[in-house]
């Protein structure tokens, strides 16, 4: 089976063009592809569209919020586009307020289901989330069994950036605990999926098929995170080789 | 009662009052901030299964400092612990739990609740963006939507309203509200005040409320047991 392992994050992101649409995984630090984002920041691609839970965060060493601060993002699809208090307003919020950048805000379940629809060849779906709110204005609705639903469409992407724990050389993946979050869905939804690996990259045949979380057919590039400080890790205890 | 006894309920009392009504085996989703205090209530032999948007089912208390497990957070991005019997799913399956009606109760914070069961908790005035997270999915999917919030804003304006002024999160879904002044059920006739903060009179609570309150004939002081 094809060996998808690359030796550097810079090599992994080298072909990403201006204008690309990228799904960025993670929920909080777990599963956040900091090393891929760090490489993309170095690489320089601009005019990007990002699909992620929240795009304003700069708390990790490399996060979507850093790309936003560099004015390299034109649109973000997300479930959070403002902090709870104006006093914590980010560059993300300034740019969306001024109209320099667009943010399309939606319920988190709708966000992930739109990705799942793209992944699964589903043309659209009806959900009750957001019915009666300003988000559903001008959207098609339908009453099914007496309940009103709103029609939502798939979210496709050119690339997915995700983090997993273990991979084999073909890209079969296992996640550690809540590292999973959006990542399996993004891996299936994007045309090209890039994965940074915290643990080991093992030979094909070394992973029990019963315990594969994301099949390697959905994965294109696998890169092992080097020890800190070269590799970007989250907690001090997380960076131990 | 003397006036010295009269003070608004603290947040833990508010949340414990809601948690008291959780039943054994319930799946509960607690919103970030104040609602997480529900988990501090002593459930004795009742088993509550906490579910979190990021796919974590059946987690335990917050991790002690220095003992955090790097890849284990709840939806508030707090480092938590595992309990025996925990399970982890991806985000799409997690919202199957939420929208599919498997969550017995969600406790959410809010800016406003209206007497028709609408609530508004994702967007503040004068700002283009907001924070929805899983609230709109929980609001339509959970079996019970309960709200924990202060009775009035920092400027003293009522939060229990005839109709929400802020953009709503969902329409007609809230069943119960606890504030620092009492416990209220949303009924077809409006807010029914069932319990009141010790030392307050119904007239005082009504004065801090825009909606017309229905005072329960069995009105009791709010107490955590």
Secondary structure elements and their pairing?
The complex is a heterodimer of chains A (241) and B (225).
Chain A (H helix, E strand, L loop, with lengths): L8 H5 L7 E4 L9 H10 L4 E4 L12 H6 L3 E6 L12 H8 L3 E4 L2 H13 L4 E3 L13 E4 L2 E6 L4 E8 L1 E3 L4 E2 L8 H7 E8 L3 E2 L18 E4 L17
Parallel strand pairs in A: 1-2, 1-8, 2-3, 3-4, 8-11, 9-12, 11-13
Antiparallel strand pairs in A: 5-7, 6-7, 9-10
Chain B lengths: L10 H9 L7 E4 L18 E4 L3 E7 L17 E9 L2 H9 L5 E4 L3 E3 L4 E2 L14 H7 L3 E4 L11 E2 L12 E6 L2 E6 L2 E7 L5 H6 L6 E8 L4
Parallel strand pairs in B: 1-2, 1-5, 5-8, 6-9, 8-10, 12-13
Antiparallel strand pairs in B: 2-3, 3-4, 6-7, 10-11, 11-12
Describe the structure.
The complex is a heterodimer of chains A (241) and B (225). Chain A has 241 residues and is an alpha/beta fold. Chain A has a single domain (9-120, 156-233), classed as Glutaconate Coenzyme A-transferase, CATH 3.40.1080. Chain A has 6 helices and 13 strands. Chain A has helices spanning 9-13, 34-43, 64-69, 91-98, 108-120, 183-189, and strands at 21-24, 48-51, 73-78, 102-105, 125-127, 141-144, 147-152, 157-164, 166-168, 173-174, 190-197, 201-202, 221-224. Chain A has a 7-stranded parallel β-sheet with strand order 4-3-2-1-8-11-13, with helices on both faces. Chain A has a 3-stranded antiparallel β-sheet with strand order 5-7-6. Chain B has 225 residues and is α/β, with parallel strands linked by helices. Chain B is built from 4 helices and 13 strands. Chain B has a 10-stranded mixed β-sheet with strand order 4-3-2-1-5-8-10-11-12-13. Chain B has a 3-stranded mixed β-sheet with strand order 7-6-9, with no helix packed on it. The model of chain B has no long low-confidence stretch (mean pLDDT 96). Classes of the chains: A alpha/beta (241), B alpha/beta (225).
